[in-house]
Specification:
The chain is of the alpha/beta class. It has helices spanning 27-42, 64-75, 90-107, 116-120, 124-130, 136-154, 166-179, 212-221, 238-252, 256-275, 295-304; strands at 16-18, 23-25, 43-44, 48-49, 55-59, 79-86, 111-115, 159-161, 191-192, 202-204, 280-281, 288-289. Helices cover 48% and strands 13% of the residues. The radius of gyration is 20 Å and the shape is globular. The N and C termini lie far apart (56 Å). The structure holds adenosine monophosphate and zinc ion (2 copies). Residues 282, 284-285, 287, 289, 294, 296-297 line the site of one zinc ion (ZN).
C-alpha cells in the first residue's frame, strides 16, 4: 500500500487499507478491527450469541485461516480445544501435524488428533487410489466433516469452529447457486445451532467477515507459524477458480464479497423458513444422512471390500 496513509484511529503509519470501510489501520488497530469482526460473527444476536462458557472444538488444518481463527478465539477468551485430522498424506500430513502441535503448545490450547489410517484403517491417498474416478475434494470434505462432527459430539462439545473465511464462503455460495440445489444455503450463517437429536453439533465460522488477505496479515502480525503448502488436489478445484475471480472482483468493487455473504445469509433463512429442516439418520452409524446409509459409512465399506 502507498506510504503516506495514516491510521484512521491514531497517528501511526497505516499498514492496511480496508477499502469497503474506507479506513486504514496501523498494526494495533488492524488487530482490533480483526478481533471485532470475529466478535461480530460470534456474539451478534442476529446470528446467535455464543457465550464464553460454551465448549467449542476448533478444527485446525495447520493453515493460516484455522490457526488465525484459533488464535483469535483464544485471545477473545472462548472455551476452546483444537482438533486436527491426520489424513495420511505422508510428508504433508506429518508436517501439518507438527505445525498444529507446536502452535497449540505455544498458545496453551489442548490439541486432539484423529489419525485416519490408525483409527479407520485407510489413508486419503489409499482412498483416492481405489476411487480414482471420483471427485477427490468431495470425498476428503465428507470425511473431514463427518469425523469432526463425530469427535465433537462424542466429547461433549456444543459447537465446532472452522477457519472458513469470507473468500471461501462467497465462493461456496456461488458454487451452491451453480449446483441448483439450494437447500445447501440452509446453514449459511456465521453461527448455526446444534441439533442434538440428530447428533449434529453447532457450527461456527468466526472468520465469516474476513478476507484471505486479512487472515494472512493477522497471522503474520502475530508471528503465527502456519503450514504454507497447499493441497495439490485442491488447486484446480472449481472453488479455487471461483476464489481467484472473486479476489479480483473485490479489488475492483470493494465490499462486494460482504454484500454477497449477507445476501446468502438472507437466502439461507428464507429457504429454512420455507423448506424446514429435513434430516434422516444413517442406519449404520446413527449420524445424520440424507440417504439410508451416510456417505462416510459408504466410503468405509468400500475400502473394506
Ligand atoms: P478447507 O476445506 O481445506 O478450506 O478447510 C476448511 C476448514 O476445515 C479449515 O479452516 C479447518 O477449520 C478445517 N480443516 C481442514 N482440514 C482439516 C484437518 N486436516 N483437520 C482438522 N480440521 C481441518
Ligand atoms: Zn492506529
Ligand atoms: Zn453412517
Amino acid at each position: 500500500m502507498k506510504d503516506k496513509k495514516i491510521c484512521s484511529k491514531c497517528e501511526k503509519k497505516a499498514i492496511i487499507e480496508i477499502k469497503w470501510k474506507k479506513r486504514s489501520y496501523c498494526k494495533q488497530h488492524f488487530i482490533e478491527y480483526f478481533l471485532g469482526q470475529v466478535k461480530k460473527a460470534l456474539r451478534n444476536k442476529k446470528y446467535g450469541k455464543i457465550e464464553k462458557n460454551i465448549k467449542i472444538c476448533v478444527a485446525i488444518s495447520g493453515g493460516k485461516d484455522s490457526l488465525s481463527c484459533l488464535h483469535a478465539m483464544k485471545r477473545l477468551g472462548f472455551n476452546i480445544e483444537a482438533l486436527h485430522i491426520n489424513l495420511g498424506f505422508s510428508k504433508i500430513s506429518e508436517k501439518s501435524l507438527e505445525v498444529c502441535k507446536n502452535f497449540c503448545e505455544s498458545i496453551e490450547v489442548k490439541l486432539n488428533v484423529i489419525d485416519l489410517k490408525k483409527d479407520y484403517g485407510f489413508s486419503l491417498p489409499e482412498l483416492f487410489e481405489k476411487n480414482f474416478n471420483k471427485a477427490t475434494c468431495k470425498m476428503c470434505g465428507t470425511i473431514r466433516r463427518y469425523l469432526i462432527n463425530k469427535f465433537a459430539f462424542e466429547n461433549g462439545f456444543d459447537y465446532i469452529a472452522t477457519g472458513h473465511n469470507l473468500s471461501d464462503i462467497t465462493a461456496q455460495g456461488i458454487n451452491t447457486l451453480l449446483s441448483n440445489y439450494f437447500i445447501g444455503f440452509r446453514s449459511f450463517s456465521p453461527v448455526t445451532n446444534p441439533i442434538k437429536e440428530f447428533k449434529i453439533c453447532g457450527r461456527l465460522k468466526p472468520l465469516f467477515f474476513l478476507t484471505d488477505e486479512e487472515n494472512k496479515l493477522y497471522a503474520r502480525l502475530n508471528n503465527i507459524n502456519y503450514f504454507k503448502e497447499k493441497c495439490e488436489y485442491g488447486l484446480k478445484s472449481p472453488l479455487n477458480i471461483l476464489k481467484k475471480h472473486l479476489k479480483s472482483l473485490e479489488k475492483e468493487t470493494p465490499g462486494i464479497l460482504r454484500r454477497l455473504a449477507f445476501s446468502f445469509i438472507s437466502f439461507g433463512k428464507f429457504i429454512e423458513k420455507h423448506k424446514g429442516k429435513s434430516f434422516g439418520i444413517c442406519k449404520q452409524c446413527g449420524y445424520p444422512s440424507a440417504t439410508n446409509i451416510c456417505d462416510f459409512c459408504r466410503i468405509v465399506k468400500n475400502m473394506k471390500n
